Amino acid sequence: MQGGGEKESLLPPCKQQTMLKATYATQIESLLARYASPRSVVLPLLYMAQDHYGHLTEEAINEVAAILNLPATDVFEVVGFYTLFYDRPVGRWMVQVCDDVPCCYCGAEALLDALKQQLGISEEQTSSDGMFTLQRVKCLAACHRPPVVQANLSYFYDVTAERADAFIRFLREHADTPQGKSVSGFYAEDYEPDANGTFRQIPRKLVAYQPPAASNGTPAAEPSQPAPSEPSAASPPETA
Ligand code: FES
Predict the structure, then answer these.
(1) Domain-by-domain residue ranges, the chain?
(2) Is the preceding peptide bond at 147 cis, omega within 30 degrees of 0?
(3) In terms of pLDDT, which residue wins out, 226 or 98?
(4) Which atom of ligand 1 is nearest the CA belonging to 140?
(5) Which run of H or E residues covers position 93?
(6) What is the 104 CA–ligand 1 centroid distance (Å)?
(7) Residue 236: pLDDT above 70?
(8) Given CB 3.0 to 4.6 Å as the disulfide criterion, which of 9, 56, 108, 202 pairs with 103?
(9) Could you tell me which CATH number the domain at 93-201 has?
(10) Fold of 13-81
């Protein structure tokens, strides 16, 4: 996607898209108001564009650059640098199988083989129905429950080769959920196998911080409660 030299005015004005600004005006304004520099909004805006268009087309990248009043080259470089930006069409689900050492010891290669067979594709390919793109990735930092797979950045634990069929079925059945519609992972959750041969969402637990007792025997002062997190302005509305 990247080339040498400055990449400016890649499209004539009549071909430049304005869909993002028209669709997400409030969210974009909110993001811009949050940061001192428009440059700081590049990543959330690219994720927004990626979810809206399905992947980052040249037009979409130019559109982001235009909204932020940045040189297009700068935005193309960001897209080229980060592996979670997709500058080519990808499936509804981006399935990323960890093949690092702990996952490999627990069957990651067998899982990859099973998924390839299930989907009829090789790595870095997309299934003919446009539903799945398969990738092999390095450690996903969840080595305690291998083999680990990410699908649109949702974590799936203990996905053995024997569970490949249930895993694919689960993703197909959930293709129209927010998780399935956001390849950028705005609504990502955690899942584990359940007793019914499918997967269940793991509830998130917020554990309160317990301050250690002070050395004189009196309890340490309670830390002030963090402010509740506000809804992310970067979260795009669900796309069709
Ligand atoms: S090795 Fe697979 S999550 Fe760390």
Answers:
(1) 13-81, 93-201
(2) yes
(3) 98
(4) 3
(5) strand 93-98
(6) 8
(7) no
(8) 108
(9) 3.40.30.10
(10) Arc Repressor Mutant, subunit A (1.10.10)
